[in-house]
Amino acid sequence: MKKILRAIIILLIPILLYYGLFLRFEPNNFFGLRAETPSGAVFGAIRQYRENPSASVIVGDSRTAHLDMDRVEQLTGRRFSNLAFGGASLKEELDLLDWLLKHYPEINEVVLGSSFYTMNAAYNFDRFSTIETALANPFAYLTSKSYNLEAMQNLIFWLQGEKLGGGQDETEDPANYKWADFTTPTGYEVSLRGEIGNYLEKIAPYTEKWEPNTKQYERLLELIDSCAEKGIRFVVVFPPMHPAVREYDVEARGIDAGMAPLLAGLAASPATLLDYELTSPPDFAEDQYFDGFHLDYQRGLPEWTEMLCEELR
Length: 313
Description:
Blueprint: H1 2-25, H2 42-51, E1 56-59, H3 62-65, H4 69-76, E2 80-82, H5 90-103, E3 109-113, H6 128-136, H7 138-142, H8 145-159, E4 179-183, E5 189-193, H9 194-207, H10 214-229, E6 233-238, H11 243-251, H12 255-268, E7 272-275, H13 301-312
Parallel strand pairs: 1-2, 1-3, 3-6, 6-7
Antiparallel strand pairs: 4-5
């Protein structure tokens, strides 16, 4: 019996070590074991919304997840619930929005954060069914392939010295900027701030395969029409991206041309289109960007929040 127990313990050690790492680096602090829950953690956002739903909601990815919601309420005069979460695909945003509209008929305003990146058929994660299941069954979260992959990715980023918290951690003193030579995804040799060059490399596996996600795009248009029929205001917002991403990735790969008909279709729909990404980028300085997609939390995000809320107001 002792030999059997010893063998079982030996077999359990690597499993326990693995799940120790998983609990440390999984993206949502699902079990509340860490001191802080990252902003933009989907499970926390859904639980909070269940406890205190609002008529105005934001869905999107990390680029809309870290807005100062007290400031948004102050500027717009109404309370928004922010259910955007890091890494969300367009399909996941629409799945979440369908769920919200089904369970909370009092919703009368939707702001959906989008991007050329999430309009990409190559970026089409499908985790919402897992999210629904995990809310009722934590074991499903522990065994989710997607969240296990995210945890291991976070571990790799941590080992490389990258910040993982998002939100308030997404700021850098310009005095600490480090510039380096990079080969862009399409072969140009350029000098870029490290965070920008690294981001170009990070998104390249998806952007090099870019093609419009026609199925989810058409689904978005149908949802916009459905909301219009119900009197629900619908706003589609494309947050700003760093000019280097636009020049060396989006324009160099012809993605901007591929996005043009999608943007035209949204502009012709009943939705309000706010495109700060491609057609109306703000004239922001280098220190207002944290990396290729995210604005600096202290120097860029507050100014863009003012711009966005002016339109929402």
